[in-house]
Amino acid sequence: MRESEIHEFILTQLFELYAESVPSGLCPSQEFNEAVGPVLPRVLSYLHNLELGKEELAEIAYEYYATYDQRIPLHEKTENWQTLGGSLRAGDA
Predict the structure, then answer these.
(1) Helix (H, G, I), strand (E, B), or coil: what is residue 28?
(2) What CA–CA distance (Å, rounded) separates 40 from 45?
(3) What is the arithmetic mean of pLDDT over 69-78?
């Protein structure tokens, strides 16, 4: 599992909370699904209980991406991570 998969998941969930559409074709790996299975309900509950407006969520998503894009080594970034970043930079999400 690549490091960016954790952050991809969080960004995808944030997109679903505020964006009209989420970039298509973003599927976590089987390894990721197995690793997060035990904590997934708790993480989803936390994210879906955020009481922020769409604009605030969009700002948080962009800042989250910008922060982790600098920290994650290039070889740990998946194609999905690049897709999410492109959508954020283009204002599509």
Answers:
(1) coil
(2) 8
(3) 91
